[in-house]
Structure to design on (680 residues):
């Protein structure tokens, strides 16, 4: 009776696994975030440059990230990730842009707007802006940026124009003079126009930058990596192919060497792979090229738990124990071995996660998830199915003894 | 199996492998990539009929100093000083006008400051990993096991570093990841053997440490071999089919894993005995 129900359960498990792979495989894989090294894109690390007397704090960076995010949204740059790194850095990742370099060039502008008089005194700054719009002059077809000051700024601008009638007023952005119109009369309505031989696109971008406000600090590019789309998809195809070949080799080896338990190990591996990919998809973890390598590698290492257990079971069988007793003893004795061995590997993965950046971090994440999943699968699923098989047959030859 | 009795042979064998690597490290050092030194690397695809010298000639039209061009099939890696976007674009334009079918694959640019930080982080993380291992093994086992395991780690690191220096394979940030994985993997191997030693010690049979060690190694030998085999299958598949970008990353792990499996049996285990005998 027990034999029949065991056969039934095993058949059900195999069928369920087959259905899982068949139906859930594609959607889960589609849902996993691919790193820039696999889909192509640009990753830039910007570092805040402290000017004399200025200290960059966490707050400065948080503010800058907020402003940058604003700009990304208004400029319509697609598929962009922005996040702070360390105390002074911001990482910008752009995947869905044709010319990501140009997008970053615009983004990282400080956009510090100032109005200077002839002596170079700063009279009004961009902080007093309420709005900035791009427009095309209907008469001259010239692209311009229309500024609207807030109340305070309107007063300041009024005073500045009054004091400089007949003289030029310099419009300066990031210490570069954009234009220097001569003031005809005081302007008290709080509006101003910037003309600077802009193209329509330049005027649009400038308006966005001014609207989002100046960055609190200047940023320099520290590191830049851009992957073309062909290389990305090529790497993806090749590494998936390599991963599958590696997996098949491991499956065949386990089956050939350990026979029946090997088959159980193979089933465990399928579950293991499903768990790792599922967790990655749920966590929104990013799969990078080293990450795929880490995954393929963790398959090689995941069977280690099975190998340790099976070798133990064989030993117990050689001592003359019955199959079920040997399985019980094998698991019990193997547990702490597997635990200690995996914790140490996990420690190195944690160190890597802490110090690594970008793709390397992806590798550490995949490896860590892999270690935990392999432990969980070996100690629950593998054990359960092995006992089920032991209910069906006592033939020790199937256990390679 | 008289592994422990023959330990001197294995020590010498390891030294034969490690010493040339050390000499090479001292003489020519490591081939550090831009992740460490700063600079730019442009990866492009051009007809395989073109050779590296022709590409170099095209690059020399720009005033950017010496460019280092390496060719791998139809892919060219052009390493220069750190270039800004304009210079990179200019370089691409030149290549496109000089050759047919130029395809952009990737461009990387790293500031020198980032490089020096990476070196620092790499050293810190390797040290931290070693200290954490030592701590964990001391808590779970005994300090003598920890010391033996850490010496085996250093042995493995030296073998991988030596190989990379001897063959002047380029080192990047992924190499650090490979090294840490090697540490994790070889400690894993060592622990499985030490775990058996610990278990056998608890049985308190009348047996000297030498035969106890030999027995423990033998009992875990099948596992040691099979695990390194399955990992090697996965690594070999990645090496053969995984594309050029991760080749060196995989090679570092392959060398490290084999050395890790070897050192767990032939270095870490006898070293534990040496330490045990002396304290």
């Amino acid at each position: 009776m027990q034999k029949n129900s065991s056969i039934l359960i095993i058949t059900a498990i195999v069928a369920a696994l087959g259905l899982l792979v068949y139906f859930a495989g594609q959607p889960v894989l589609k849902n996993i975030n691919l790193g820039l090294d696999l889909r192509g894109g640009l990753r830039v690390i910007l570092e805040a440059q402290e000017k004399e007397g200025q200290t960059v704090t966490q707050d400065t960076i948080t503010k800058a990230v907020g402003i940058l995010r604003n700009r990304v949204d208004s400029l319509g740059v697609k598929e962009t990730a922005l996040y702070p790194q360390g105390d002074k850095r911001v990482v910008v990742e752009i995947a869905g842009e044709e010319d990501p370099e140009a997008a970053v060039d615009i983004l990282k502008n400080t956009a510090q707007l100032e109005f200077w008089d002839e002596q170079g005194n700063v009279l009004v700054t961009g902080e007093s802006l309420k709005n900035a719009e791009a427009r095309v002059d209907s008469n001259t077809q010239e692209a311009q940026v229309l500024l609207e000051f807030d109340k305070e700024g309107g007063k300041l601008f009024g005073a500045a124009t009054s004091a400089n009638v007949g003289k030029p007023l310099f419009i300066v952005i990031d210490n570069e003079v954009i234009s220097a119109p001569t003031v005809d009369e005081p302007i008290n309505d709080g509006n101003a126009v910037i003309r600077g031989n802009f193209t329509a696109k330049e005027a649009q971008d400038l308006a966005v930058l001014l609207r989002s406000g100046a960055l609190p600090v200047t940023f320099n590019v520290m590191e830049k990596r851009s992957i073309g789309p062909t290389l990305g998809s090529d790497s993806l195809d090749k590494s998936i192919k390599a991963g599958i070949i590696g997996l098949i080799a491991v499956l065949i080896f386990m089956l050939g060497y350990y026979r029946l338990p090997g088959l159980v190990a193979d089933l465990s591996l399928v579950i293991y792979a499903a768990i790792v990919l599922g967790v990655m998809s749920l966590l929104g973890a990013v799969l990078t090229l080293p990450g795929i390598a880490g995954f393929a590698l963790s398959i090689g290492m995941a069977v280690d738990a099975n190998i340790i257990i099976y070798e133990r079971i064989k030993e117990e069988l050689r001592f003359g124990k019955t199959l079920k007793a040997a399985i019980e003893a094998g698991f019990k004795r193997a547990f702490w071995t597997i635990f200690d061995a995996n914790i140490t590997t996990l420690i190195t993965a944690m160190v890597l996660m802490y110090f690594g950046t970008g793709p390397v971090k992806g590798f550490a994440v995949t490896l860590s998830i892999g270690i935990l999943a392999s432990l969980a699968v070996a100690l629950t699923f593998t054990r359960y199915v092995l006992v089920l098989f032991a209910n069906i047959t006592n033939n020790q030859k199937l256990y390679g003894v | 199996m008289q592994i422990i009795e023959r330990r001197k042979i294995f020590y010498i064998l390891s030294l034969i492998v490690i010493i040339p690597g050390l000499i090479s490290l001292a003489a020519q050092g490591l081939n550090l990539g831009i992740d460490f030194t700063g600079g730019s690397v442009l990866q492009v695809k051009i007809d395989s009929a073109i050779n590296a010298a022709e590409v170099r000639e095209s690059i020399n039209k720009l005033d950017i100093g010496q460019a280092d061009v390496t060719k791998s099939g139809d892919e060219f890696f052009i390493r220069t000083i750190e270039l800004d976007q304009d210079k990179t674009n200019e370089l691409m334009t030149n290549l496109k006008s000089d050759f047919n079918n130029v395809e952009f694959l990737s461009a990387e640019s790293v500031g020198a400051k980032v490089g020096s930080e990476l070196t620092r982080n790499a050293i810190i993380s390797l040290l931290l990993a070693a200290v954490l291992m030592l701590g964990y093994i001391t808590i779970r086992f005994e300090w003598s096991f920890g010391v033996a395991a850490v010496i085996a780690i250093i042995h493995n690191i030296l073998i991988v570093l030596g190989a990379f220096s001897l063959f002047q394979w380029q080192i990047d940030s992924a190499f650090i990841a490979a090294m840490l994985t090697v540490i994790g993997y070889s400690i894993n191997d060592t622990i499985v053997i030490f775990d058996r030693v610990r278990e056998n010690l608890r049985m308190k049979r009348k047996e000297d440490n030498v035969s106890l060690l030999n027995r423990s190694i033998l009992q875990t030998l099948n596992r040691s071999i099979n695990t390194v085999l399955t990992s090697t299958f996965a690594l070999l598949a990645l090496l053969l089919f995984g594309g050029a970008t991760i080749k060196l990353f995989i090679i570092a792990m392959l060398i490290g894993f084999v050395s890790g499996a070897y050192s767990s049996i032939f270095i870490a285990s006898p070293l534990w005995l040496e330490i045990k005998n002396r304290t």
Q: What stands out?
A: Chain A touches chain B through 68 residues (CB under 8 Å). The mean pLDDT of chain A is 86. Chain A has ten helices and 13 strands. Residues 44 and 53 of chain A are 27 Å apart (CA to CA).
